[in-house]
């Protein structure tokens, strides 16, 4: 446990230093720093090792958290022993890597660009995730994927949410079978915005969530964006995000498992 917490502490320092760099350097230097982050995610054996370590630790923790019937990885839902167990995973940079998309991205990110890329390329798995999901399912745990890929119409496609089909395809491409009932996209329902708290609570109505996985603070903690998204009413700051590290210190590496992402995320927006 100590080694896992040290890992997450180190990643937090890296994210903080990079965010300071973004504020103080010129645009050319910022571009260079971003490029280094992309290359690290693409080529570094360290990145693969961290992913393997996270999922290996979670696999070891699984029997204990499953057996603790009063445990919940969603604060406020402790003691709900009558519900079947479930795990929630983010998709991008948690189940699969988008580094090739980021490296080939021209101009600003759009949901359409990402949708078109996923339809034209085979998804790249993160090391260890498929084996972990298989182990969890073998233990009787239901798996949900909560992603901020946006449901939105695409010209020439009559599907109201074509991104759901492509997301399911991506998850299946990395060796994990899944269906529409277990993939929850942003904007899929009227109150499902980009604040994942709403969808976590949706799953928690029927299941005891024993683990959360993600690459962004918002995959675990509510209201982490600089610009608030409903139901949040106030924007986050570096100080408020740092305070949450202490508030939820007993969860990190103990039901909450975070993957590194130096490429993008809510951390880039706060000051």
Task: Using brief descriptors, characterize the structure shown.
single chain, 271 residues, alpha/beta, Rossmann fold, two-stranded antiparallel sheet, 7 strands
In short:
By secondary structure, the protein is of the alpha/beta class.
CATH superfamily: HAD superfamily/HAD-like
Distance between the termini: 31 Å
CATH topology: Rossmann fold
Q: Helix share of residues?
A: 40-55%
The mean pLDDT is: 90
Q: What's the count of strands? A: 7
Radius of gyration: 18 Å
Description of the molecule:
With 271 residues, the chain is α/β, with parallel strands linked by helices. The chain has one domain: HAD superfamily/HAD-like (Rossmann fold, 3-Layer(aba) Sandwich), CATH 3.40.50.1000. 44% of the residues lie in helices and 12% in strands. The chain is built from nine helices and seven strands, in the order αααββααβαβαβαβαβ. The strands form two sheets. A five-stranded parallel sheet has the order 5-4-1-6-7, sandwiched between helices. Helix 2 crosses helix 3 and helix 3 packs parallel to helix 6. The longest helix has 23 residues. The protein is globular, with a radius of gyration of 18 Å. The N terminus is likely disordered.
Write the layout of secondary structure elements.
Layout: H1 2-24, H2 27-43, H3 45-67, E1 85-89, E2 96-97, H4 99-104, H5 111-120, E3 124-125, H6 129-138, E4 142-150, H7 162-173, E5 183-186, H8 197-204, E6 208-214, H9 238-247, E7 256-258
Parallel strand pairs: 1-4, 1-6, 4-5, 6-7
Antiparallel strand pairs: 2-3
Helix pairs in contact: 2-3, 3-6
